[in-house]
Design brief:
about 250 residues; alpha/beta; Purple Acid Phosphatase, chain A, domain 2; six-stranded mixed beta sheet; about 30% strand
């Protein structure tokens, strides 16, 4: 069994950032003892160097292995360069956790809100997915921008400019789960055998309606893949559970 935590949208530096929510969530994550924690962008509000340094201190508290990718807010004010210096490379893989391969993509564009993966990363992703399939591994993709529109988020904008191409590659290459953030609304779409799961914001008050801050967890066992929503008010509920085709 593999257990994954999915955090997103810290927004450190924003007036809506709530440090107590983030620290409480990190304590919960550490108590869960996940195999890996994935963070899908917008760690900062403005991409400033000092914000990145503060984020690095929070990430240091997380005890599990980390996959972190940038969001559109992290690419502001030369933040794309700061991210690489202070946090880590903007895309890459983790593949030493059981039979799991995680591919992190950088969907951010400097000083722009919309996203783009681009042809080079797309080709890289396709090769990584093929390699994982040949080795019988579960395939997880993480990026900031959602690929499929998210309900209850108003007028659709700031999506990937190459969403159709990326979606085609993901389905064609049989990814198991695609994790994203950006919209601050947790939701799961099932497209064929792939779950597209967006996370809410874990530590910001940029929330819709009565939605609380939250993060997702993913359980992968021999029979099923299950994605759960964990809210700041202590409630956990299932978002989706589906058959594990790699069993």
């Amino acid at each position: 069994m593999v257990f994954i935590v999915h955090l997103s949208d810290f927004h450190v530096g924003s007036i809506s950032f709530q440090e107590d929510l983030l620290l409480k969530s990190i304590d919960s994550v550490n108590s869960m003892d996940p195999d890996v924690t994935i963070v899908t962008g917008d760690l900062t509000e403005n991409g400033y160097y000092l914000e990145m340094e503060q984020v690095a201190e929070y990430l240091e508290i997380i005890k599990s292995p980390l996959m972190v990718v940038p969001g559109n807010h992290d690419a502001r004010h030369v933040g794309d360069q700061c991210f690489r210096e202070i946090i880590r490379e903007r895309y890459g893989t983790i593949e030493n956790i059981g039979d799991l391969k995680i591919m992190g993509l950088d969907s951010s564009e400097p000083d722009l809100n919309y996203g783009k993966v681009g042809r080079a990363q797309q080709a890289w992703m396709e090769q990584q997915l093929e390699d994982a399939s040949q080795n019988g591994m579960h395939k997880i993709i993480a990026l900031h921008h959602h690929i499929i529109p998210v309900p209850r988020t108003g007028r659709e904008r700031n999506v990937l400019s190459d969403a159709g191409d990326i979606l085609y590659s993901i389905i064609e290459k049989n990814a198991d789960v695609v994790l994203s953030g950006h919209k601050h609304v947790p939701h799961v779409w099932m497209v064929q055998n792939t779950a597209f799961a967006t996370a809410g914001t874990v530590s910001s008050l940029k929330l819709r309606g009565k939605d609380p801050a939250s993060f997702n967890t993913i359980n992968i066992d021999d029979d099923y893949i299950e994605i759960l929503l964990n809210t700041a008010d202590g409630i956990t509920r299932r978002l989706v559970k589906y058959e594990n085709r790699c069993r």
